[in-house]
């Protein structure tokens, strides 16, 4: 697409969802460094997410994590979000942070624990009914550490049974996205270690079950754009958790470690025409900002996604098809590299001016006084963080 008006229209329509947990304190198992101004509850996380949307214009929803974001009245939180100009997005259940889940949640050998986990997932669908969320985002920490610890096969049966029960509870406009991860917290088997396992379960379940690709959840060297393309082919790409990885599930800012990988993924998404908000592919961030300030880090992340997508939109599709058909390897590769090498920042600045927002959202954040405001308003009380 070389028509700049069309490129800008596509970028303007794109929607990127930020995660509530990225606004709270986070760290490693060694230390959580608390930051001034961090939200103390779900309302303040929503307020920060709304700030990211005001600055970028393309982040109009925030994913919630239950129970970290549990409130007495989800209808009230939904109204609060709407007043702030955003919506509540994907609901992320938590079936990993209780002692009961030591040997797993929905795959646990103990039927009582499985019941408890499934009941929590069903409760999260009840919450979706109130918040208007259409996506249940499932990630299971289930797995084993040692050969023989539990039956791989029986655990798959338990997983299938649980997914079926939750699937059958979904409303007409609700979907479940099943996330996979090759290791951590378990180091021998994970019960959903890869896209193939997620895909197989989603195929068995039906149209309302799709795969969630977290870009940080693959073995080094995995060709993510390839598996994304295969999932798209079968209508099973439900969405992304974008972030960067250097080593494991690093949860660094998307586009920071490997902007070229993000561009290659974006190229397949543009080719499949799924950047549109009604495409059924959800663009969500799943990050933790251990060192950097959270709100500007999320702004930067949104901009990084926009830059990758803008470059992908600039790929000369006709020239690419011609070179591919001719078997001209270098010319075809050159078409992609030309787009990747383009500085799209002026185009994005122009777009933001047309949208009536500051062309430099990070500078706008620093000029806004918002950081000072949250640091003074949120000086007391318990800050939100992993597990709170
Ligand atoms: C865990 O590794 C997964 O990426 C989850 O999607 C996510 O980080 C967690 O559920 C936080 O809510
Ligand atoms: Zn994730
Ligand atoms: Zn993860
Ligand atoms: Zn991650």
TrEMBL record:
It is an enzyme of class 5 (isomerase). Keywords: Cytoplasm, Isomerase, Manganese, Metal-binding, Rhamnose metabolism. Pfam families: RhaA. The keyword Lipid metabolism does not apply. Its EC number is 5.3.1.-, 5.3.1.14. The keyword Nucleotide-binding does not apply. Gene3D superfamilies: Divalent-metal-dependent TIM barrel enzymes (3.20.20.150). GO terms for biological process: L-lyxose metabolic process; rhamnose catabolic process. GO terms for molecular function: L-rhamnose isomerase activity; manganese ion binding. This is L-rhamnose isomerase/sugar isomerase.
